[in-house]
Amino acid sequence: MAELREVQITEEKPLLPGQTPEVAKTHSVETPYGSVTFTVYGTPKPKRPAILTYHDVGLNYKSCFQPLFQFADMQEIIQNFVRVHVDAPGMEEGAPVFPLGYQYPSLDQLADMIPCILQYLNFSTIIGIGVGAGAYVLSRYALTHPDTVEGLVLINIDPNAKGWMDWAAHKLTGLTSSISEMILGHLFSQEELSGNSELIQKYRNIIAHAPNLDNIELYWNSYNNRRDLNFVRGGDTTLKCPVMLVVGDQAPHEDAVECNSKLDPTQTSFLKMADSGGQPQLTQPGKLTEAFKYFLQGMGYMASSCMTRLSRSRTASLTSAASIDGNRSRSRTLSQSSESGTLSSGPPGHTMEVSC
Predict the structure, then answer these.
(1) Burial letters for 287-325: b for 16+ Cβ neighbours within 10 Å, e otherwise?
(2) What stretches of 74-199 adopt beta strand conformation (E)?
(3) C-alpha count within 13 angstroms, C-beta hemisphere, residue 90
(4) What distance in Å separates the CA atoms of residue 195 and residue 185, rounded to the nearest whole number?
(5) pTM confidence score
């Protein structure tokens, strides 16, 4: 049984023109693996799942997702869903540093904390959005609790455990690089780091001067010690819900994200975003918002939603059909010609790459 530790009102976000302020409530609950903090925006909508996010290493929910959820075109989406932003233990703002010798939860144990959150909030189903380590956590949760997950957006997921060569390379890098630099190398491509843009400078400063850097290192270690998810197409170990895999064209783990060959092709779409670097939700929130809207429409939500700037500027088609039983229709994938710049609908049962 999850046990309430504290509830408080937090954060007044900068508002977009015409946008009304959202009430954000931050909660902490005790779980078998320690306390977990999460922030809820909005109120539950009848017959609609909650959108639940989980951030990557080196970030918290604000630094990972705020640019996406504050984007103008995203407002139509968030008005229709309650949102739950989970902070991994010790990653929330103002988190105390864990004592020396503290045993940080494994990624599997972080996934096992999610039922306590949903039980406390009395939410029955979710649509998950995870980045990096957060994408792994949500995937692990979906494997063990498939009936509670209606859909997943997995950005920069690496479903594979580290091999011995990866482990050796990680150890060697640790001899010459600081923890903050290693994490930056996980989040961003070498091209981005070399370019040292304003975005890179911002996140280098956030991570290098984080007061909870010791906690971040523990989360980093758990990520590097993750188990293989062992996805098997058509087997018991696969994701049962619609999935949108997202990766930037310069993401450090681009090859690993292409695990769609191991997932159900009728329910999986693969989105490779051009000019987005290693963190598409930070660099291309507009394109990701558009893709997310298509994803929701494919599941049977927001069918009357107006099309946004991407679809107005390109020829697009989306296939989606609702079952006679009222079940949510499964996502259909889009493919875009890199030469013509047009979008076309792919035939059902095929997973296609989208470069946008």
Answers:
(1) bbbbbbbbbbbbbbbbeeeeebebbeeeebebebeeeee
(2) 83-87, 126-131, 149-155
(3) 24
(4) 13
(5) 0.82
pLDDT at 346: 38
Query: CA 289 to CA 283: how far, in whole Å?
Result: 12
Rg (Cα) of the chain, in Å, rounded? 19
Q: Token pair of 249, please?
A: 């064209």
3-class secondary structure, 143: helix
Report helix angle 213-224 to 133-144, nearest 10: 50
What percent of the chain clears pLDDT 90, i.e. is strictly above it? 62
Collapsed DSSP state (helix, strand, coil) of residue 118? helix
Nearest alpha-carbon partner for 199 in 141, 128, 277, 121: 277
Instruction: Tell me the DSSP string of 192-251.
Output: HHHHT-HHHHHHHHHHHT-TTHHHHHHHHHHHHTPPP----TTSSSS--S-EEEEEETT-
The contacts of residue 263 (CB under 8 Å, 6+ apart) are 231, 233, 238, 239, 243, 351
Of the two residues 170 and 283, the one the predictor is more confident about is 283
Query: Which residue has tokens 């996406």?
Result: 68
The letter for the amino acid at 309 is: R
Q: Tokens representing 93?
A: 């703002």
Report yes or no: 84 and 126 within 8 Å, Cβ to Cβ. yes
Q: Report how far apart, in Å, the C-alpha atoms of 29 and of each of 41, 45, 102 are.
A: 17, 23, 19
Cα 209 versus chain centre, distance: 24
Query: What is each CA distance from 240 to 103, 105, 226, 256, 264, in whole angstroms?
Result: 32, 26, 21, 20, 8
Do 28 and 96 form a contact (C-beta atoms < 8 A)? no
Spatial separation of the C-alpha atoms in residues 57 and 132, rounded to whole Å = 7
Region 268-291: mean pLDDT is 93
Q: How is residue 150 written in tokens? A: 């209606």
CA 318 to chain centre: 23
Residue 287 C-alpha from the chain's centroid: 15
